[in-house]
Amino acid sequence: MADLERTPLYDLHVDLNAKMVPFAGFSMPVQYPTGIRREHQAVRESAGLFDVSHMGEFLVTGPDAAEFIGWTTSNDPLALDSGQAQYSVMCHESGGIVDDLLVYRFGEDRFRLVVNAANLDKDWAHLKGQAARFDVQLEDESKGVGLLALQGPLSQEILAPLASEDLESIGFYEFTQGHVGGAPCVISRTGYTGEDGFELYLPAERTAAVWEALMDAGSSVGLIPAGLGCRDSLRLEMGYALYGNDLDDETSPLEAGLGWLVKLSKEAFIGRDILMRQKADGLARRLRGIRLLERGFPRPGYEVSFEGVVCGTVRSGTMSPSLGAGICTAYLPPAAKPGSPVEISIRDRMIPAMVVAMPFYSDGSLRK
Fold this sequence. Notes:
single chain
């Protein structure tokens, strides 16, 4: 893995005997010796600490910053006040998804876009290609920013003694600028797990010290390091999409069940015409949640049949630690609705399953 990039916490993960794997061009911890199931349980019951410093961060400034982001994303950045964030997607003219991302508003003309590491170069080229018509400046901050995700019902209790700001005043999808463990930090009440928690944007060189301070503060109440393996099972239980599995250049946000991110009332944004046509004509497929009725592990790529016909493949799948059942997503015909029976081909066996509404798991302490 010598050709892979490393986050500021690489050496720390190695010292913790993490299993390191290639992910989005980085060497990342998929799990620690505690194991994925234990890490998943910790996030649901107490707290887990994730290194997500591989994510990309782009700074957008200038008089046209809001207009530029309104053009390049489907959601409406003008709906944000300073100190608020929103989930959004960038689309091609075809309606396919360039990437899903977070948009942070720091002021009238200052925003941060947080993008998936695997799409960083593609996203940067896409945004630069649109920037010439706007009075904006773009800066790729990714190399200088470390990102920690402290997730779980005890996150606030753990973070509060180290934070300079009143965490209780930070609502869901809100953020503030302050200090954590003495390091300058953007403290954001966001996450990818369905539990209460915070994402902490730090100077890369201060990230390891803050990780250690958080672990010291939280170890007595069950905080443990958590890797990509449980991050995936946690997000799938909540029905959160993963780019490269559930989303890609050929899927539209309407097909992916992300219509709530698509503000067709906006005057213009990339892909709007196609998405309006899709909405008017009806969708030929829709991303659905599926729960296995027998034991099995529905891995991505397995065929899914509806009414005796293969109609798609598993996009994301896992054995849910919280539910004790196999769960997955697949793009299915419109007639396949919650309650519809389907089958998944696993090792030459057709495993009975049922289309279900997402999220699969809904007992978390997500702060809304």
